[in-house]
Design a protein that fits this description.
five-stranded parallel sheet
């Protein structure tokens, strides 16, 4: 596995043996992986050591997998989350993706190939998100507003009207956005935002 495909992965499961086994599997495939029995200790250290991907059980002790996902998203919107459970339900599967932003919902016992594919997708997505955040972090709040409208396909006049500024000011912001993000126009800005 290449460095661009490998990433930092945390495995959170109150079944110590399963968490350790999943972490070992991921290490054998080139990832840096650490198991946690409880999400609370991970949340305590997460900002100092963020991950590209987190694999979490749904049903755990005081903090369940969904509550954990909400908490970790506040710390890091660019982390991919994969849910796993021994008690799958259709409602939880739908919620894991639609409400909690999960990348996948896996049933135990875990299908290794599916887990590895989901981890690879999650790491790639997280790295892309972090790249976008890094490239757009220098934008001012107003430039960010203009950027968000540009990548949705709005022209300068529509942006000016929406933000109650002149089209010339939009052009100035647009030039600054292109310079700060290192892009060459609207097509690359749209690609950056995807």
């Amino acid at each position: 596995m290449t460095d661009t495909a490998s990433g930092m992965v945390y495995v959170v499961d109150d079944d110590q043996d399963l968490g350790a086994a999943v972490a070992r599997l991921l290490r054998r495939h080139g990832h840096v992986a650490e198991p946690f029995l409880d999400p609370a200790p991970l949340l305590a250290v997460y900002e100092r050591a963020p991950a590209h991907c987190i694999v979490t059980d749904v049903m755990m002790g005081e903090i369940d997998g969904f509550d954990f996902a909400d908490r970790v998203r506040l710390l890091d919107p660019a982390v991919a989350i994969i849910f796993m459970t021994a008690w799958p339900t259709t409602a939880n599967a739908v919620d894991s993706v639609r409400r909690y932003g999960g990348l996948d919902y896996l049933e135990k016992p875990i299908d290794e190939d599916r887990l590895l594919a989901a981890i690879a997708e999650g790491v790639a997505w997280s790295k892309a998100q972090r790249s976008v955040l890094a490239r757009t972090s220098g934008l001012t709040p107003r430039q960010r507003q203009v950027f968000d409208l540009l990548v949705k396909g709005h022209n300068n006049q529509a942006i000016a009207a929406a933000l109650d500024i002149s089209p010339k000011t939009v052009e100035d912001h647009r030039a600054a956005i292109v310079a700060k993000t290192g892009t060459n126009g609207i097509a690359q800005l749209i690609a950056l935002a995807r």
